[in-house]
Amino acid sequence: MIRSLEAMPAGVVGFEVDGRISAEDYRDTVIPALTGAARAGEVRFLLVVPEFDGMSGGAVWQDLRMGAEHLRAWKRVALVTDVEWMSHLTSLFGWMSPGETKVFPLARRDEATAWVAS
Question: Do 36 and 59 contact (CB within 8 A), yes or no?
Fold first, then answer.
């Protein structure tokens, strides 16, 4: 499940993952917020992942489609997690993502929010 984070700085869309991500999570929560941010000019994305139980096939497809549709709008992505494999993969392959990508541990969530907003 993905839920929107409230009280984000201007221009930042933020989400927190709890468990497994479904295609409906993307359709109902993520895509509308990112589409609005892209229309405004750029996407600054904060994703907080305390625990991760995987993604449905439909969610993977939505994720790939979402990135491609707004390719030029991505400015910054901050991943906030203590899930080691996510941190390592993002550090290794973040250069392939549009915009800047940076990983922060959960304890530095406020720093991640400030970075993605700057």
Answer: no
If one looks up domain 2-117 in CATH, what number appears? 3.30.750
Q: How far is CA 80 from the centre of its chain?
A: 9
CA distance 48 to 93: 18
Q: How confident is the prediction along the chain (118 residues), in pLDDT tens digits per residue?
A: 889 998 999 889 999 998 888 888 878 898 888 888 888 888 898 999 998 887 666 655 566 566 556 556 778 989 999 998 778 777 766 666 777 889 999 999 999 999 999 9
92 Cβ contact list (under 8 Å, min separation 6): none
